[in-house]
Every structure is written in C-alpha cells, then in structure tokens.
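Task: fold both queries, return tokens.
Query 1:
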Amino acid sequence: MPWYRKPQFSSLRPREPQESPQRVPDGLWHRCPACLSIIYARDFTDNLKVCPSCGFHEKLSSEERLAMLVDDGTFDECDANVSSIDALGFVDSKPYPERLAAMKKRSGLVDAVRCGTSEIGGQRVSLAVMDFAFVGGSMGSVVGEKVTRAIERAIELRIPMLTVVTSGGARMQESTYSLMQMAKTSAALARLDDARLPHIVILTNPSTAGVMASYGSLGDVIIAEPDALIGFAGPRVIEQTIRQKLPRGFQRSEFVKEHGFVDIVCERAHLRDTVITLLGLLRGPHQAGICAELPTGEEEEPIPAEERVAPQGKKRATKVKATTKKPAKRGSTQTKSSKKRVGAPRASR
C-alpha cells in the first residue's frame, strides 16, 4: 500500500479576494525643483510655496498673490472682461484665437494681468498683478490697457500704485501692438509722477524683456524676491552674443541689487509687511489732502527778497549795495607790453 496517493484530478478553488495595495494620492507631496527635496504639499502651501530646505520661491498665481498681499475681502477687480482680439490674423503652430481660448480654459483667466483697488494694511492702493500661467505673463494690448487704466485710476483716486511683475516679455502674436504698450504704460507712469503719487514695483521670477523695459523698472521703490531672474535678454542670448562666460548669479535679484537696479531683496514671508511699511513712509500730502488745491506738477514761486515783509519787533535788514569797479573804457588803459605794440606797423620783409 503506497504511503502517498495523489488524486488523478485536482479541483481548482477560487482565490480569496486580497486587499488592493494602498495608493498614494496625487498632490500629496511636492518636489523642489532647486534642491529636489520632497516636501509635504500642505506644509509647502502654508509656507507660501517657499522651499524650507533651500529657500526656493515657487511661482504664485495671481489669486495666491492677492491673498498674500491684500487685506481680506477688500479687493475690487476692475476691467475683468477686457479680452484680446486677433487683429493681425496671426498663426504659428495654431491660430491665435484658438491659443487664447485654450489658455483661458487652462488658467481660468481672461488675460495675463488682474487689476483693481484694494487695501493693504488699511491703506488703499491701485493694483496690477500679473500671472505667468497665461501665455507666460506676456504683455499684449489688453495687459497694457489694463495697467494704464490702473495707473489712471490711482491718479483719479489719489492713491499709490502697486505693480507685481512676472512676465516673459511682449506677446509676439500681437507684434507691434504689444510693443506700443511699453510707450503707453511709461507715459501713464509719467503722469503718475507729475501727480506726486508713489509707484511700488514687486519683481518676481521671471521679470524680463518688454515688461521690464517699461513699467517694470519705473518704480519709486523696486522690490525683488530672492533669486528672481531680472533683465531684458536672457543670459544664454547674452553669452552667445558677447561670447564670454557670464559671472555666477548673473541677472539674479542679489546680483542686480549689487549693481543698483533693485532697492530691496525681500523674502516672500516679509513682503506684505515691507509693502505696508513703504506705504506708510511714502504717505504724504496726497493722502492727507494738503496739496489738493495746488496745481498738479507745479510749485509755488519764491517771493522776491525786496517784497518780503519783515517780522514784527525786528528791523528790516537794509540792502547793502555791492561796490564794483566800473570796467575801464577800451583803449584808455594799456599795459607796457601793449604800449610797445602801438606805433607804425612793421615793415614787410
């Protein structure tokens, strides 16, 4: 009798259902693009999207930027429905209207800037906040028009102007129309300066090209976030043009500040307090209503000295005439050297 007997036919039993392995949900962690460290997404957001390991400042949307800067519930958006048109019939990889529609759907924005009025630390300001998510924050005709209207609104309401810049430059799909916005915004800021109203600029990564060559660099105080790219042409284009190796940190906030183009390099956590402090320091007669009756851009003419009234109890200072010698008549006095030359002319050889 065999000790072991195997059945001729084995029966198949269904496997018992096993629990599926737990899957990490998307968006739970964030990898820093600078130091590659893994950060819990909630901690990263609570830290204003700044890496706690290396201090890298991630890009913020216009909505996040407004929530960080302005007082809660005080932002009143203006010109929200102004949208670009395809005046040139521009086509690159796709028609310009299709590109605009795709960008509006992806970003939820109408264009690359949001403008309006708000309060920062209880002080009312006119705002223009750019968003890199819409065609790289490029400046088209709508961006220039909305920024110009924001500046004119600041002049009308007699309040300071605050501009947050993040842009790759002028929008090539609008060609010359986008370049014209440089002159338009610069002229509007000249009127703001004539009205004696301050303009504060915040430069974020990146701030380049046509925007930087116009209203991005025309501020009374220019603040930059750490390690932000600031300049006109990119460093790679400059290296290829001059055929020289650029220094380390070229066109970054700290490098630009050392060369006098930026006033303050401020971390994002202290940015709101810095703006509130500057608004308090720049608060002048334009907000107190002292100079409202004076003509804009003009100063009172000084009173001549002879028309000034002497204060009571003091004698008016007598005007002392300075005694100056009258100039001698021509030919009346001559030096010895000149007397020797007087006489008959020399005989020609």
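Query 1 returned. Query 2:
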Amino acid sequence: MTIHNKQIYFSKLNVKIFIAIVIIFCLINKSTRKIIIENFHDFKNYTLIQLSGKSSISKYNQFHIDNIKSINKIILSDRNGNVITLKKKNKPLTNWTVNNKFNVRNDAIETLLSTANTIRIKKPVAKNAEKKVIDFIITSGVKITFFNNDTKIQSYTIGSNTSNHLGNFMLLENTSQPFEVHIPTHYGFLSPRYGIQNNSLDINSWRSHNVFNYSANSIYKIQYISKNNNSSYTLFTDSLKILNYKNQPIKFDTIKVFNLLNSFSSLNCETYKNNIDDFINMKPDECLIVNSDTLKIFNILNDSIQNNDELNFNVNRKYAILNNKDLMLIQDYVFNKVLININELIE
C-alpha cells in the first residue's frame, strides 16, 4: 500500500470513528451526555491550568486522607452550636461512639471514612463566585476535623452543594481558597455522607438503631404485657416456664418458645423521634420487657405517619419508647416476631 493510499485509508477510518462516536453520543440519555460534556470541560480547564503553571491545586491543599485507619476521633460542628464527637473504641462489634453516649451506626461511620479517603478536588472556585461561596461557608458551613488521638490529621469546612449537585464547596482550615470537591465515582453532593441535613447536624443520624441484641442463652426473662390481660405472660428461661397474668403456669409449645428466644438479635428501630414528651405519660398498648430492658409500644392512629411518602407507605409502624429514654418508630415487619401474645405460645 502506497503512502497516498494509507492516508486515504486512515482518513476514511477517522471519519467512520467520528460518525460512530456521534451516533453513540446521540443514543445515550440526556443526563449522561450532560455529565460527559461537563467532565470534558472540567478536564480541559484543569489541563490548561496545569500547563500554564498557574494551578492553585497542589499536594499541600488536598482534602483527602490516605490512611484512614489512623483516624480514631472525628469532631463535626455546625453554625447552630451542634457538636458531634465520634470516637473509636477497641471493641469489634461497636467500634465507635457518638458524644460518649451512644453506639454509632456502622454504615454511617464507614460512609464517612470512605468519603474522607476518596474525595478529590474537582477545580478551584471561579474568582467571581469566591466571595459568595466563602460567605456561605462562614455563616452556614459545617466544620469537620479528623484526629489520631489528639493529633490533628485534617480539618476543613463543608459548604453548599455545587449547582450540578455533584459535589460540595469546601475550604481547608487556615486557607482562603475554596474548591469544588467531589468523589470521582459518585454522582451526588457530599454533605449527607457527613451526616449533614439542611446545613445542620443531628445526633440521631449517627446513632445505632439497635433496640435489642440478645442471644437466646443470654435471656433470662421475657414479659409481654397487653391491655388485654388475657394475652399477657411472663417467660422464665432458668427452668423454662411460662406464667399467665394470674401467675399460673401454662403448657406451651417448646419449638415456638425457642423460636421466640432466638428472635432478639439485631432488632433495629427505623428512626428516632424527638417528641417523647407527647408519649411519656400515656399508657402503652403493649409492653415488652427483656431482662432489664423495657419497650413500651403505642399504636399509630394518625394515618399521616403511615402514609408519609418520605417513609414507605406500605410499611406499618408503631411508636415505641425504650427504657423511658428514647422515642422511636418501629416497623411491624421487624417486631411482630417478638410482639406475640400468650395464645401464640401455647400448645
């Protein structure tokens, strides 16, 4: 093949490749095209800045933390005075606590640590937008600081989400240059991954949802109390007996009892609520006592809770108070297996 023929061949090949790219580009959906175009422009701008030698991005102003295993304390604080302190423990099942009071949800801390490791600077904030971004960070930002014991590893303030909702504006401590920060493989803004909702922190978003976590051999007593006394009972495991509400022993189905005893591991509530004062003096519809833990249950009469679109309207729920301290929503699907009356245990 002559040089001239090769040129013609590669020219035709390039045209075919270009046409194929255009066809593929047209076939993908609009949102994907938008992301491709945006990322292309970001890459182009980043490359031009790097080539010009004027980049404000350097190894000295990176947000991510390479060694997240060294992190054993994290402090978050919002502009409303809410402070969340997460501390690592040396126990395998409950590794972190929040404000020295509650165990932390495993998925919440794993998401936060993964975020701390995988965030990257996307680009500097444009000069004409800097003041607005910084003003928001100063007035409404949430500061997060990572520690190894008492040694500070990293600290920055998280601002509003970017206009395309693919990241957040952030400002490193003791600096004046804000950046757009994102996770390259994540499509969505980052603040929820830090437990931030509406620029505010809530301890309940970090708390473990665990209500009961008993193995069968650790249970020595179960007491179920209903408004209908005939349905109530007390189960003792030391000699395996069940008493009715008159303290009279009854015959029971051993398999059903063992199934009940094996149903108290990893029982979780759906969410915590803050209006405990509305219920604290009410008589519960049901009460479940396991060893020394008491769960008071209240039926939901207001359909607006059951049909709330933010929750799942197909899921039936009840209010519950654990040990007169915490109000929560529990799902029937989860708790029906332990909220059983005496008639479900008899032979």
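Both queries returned. Flag for query 2: The radius of gyration is 29 Å.
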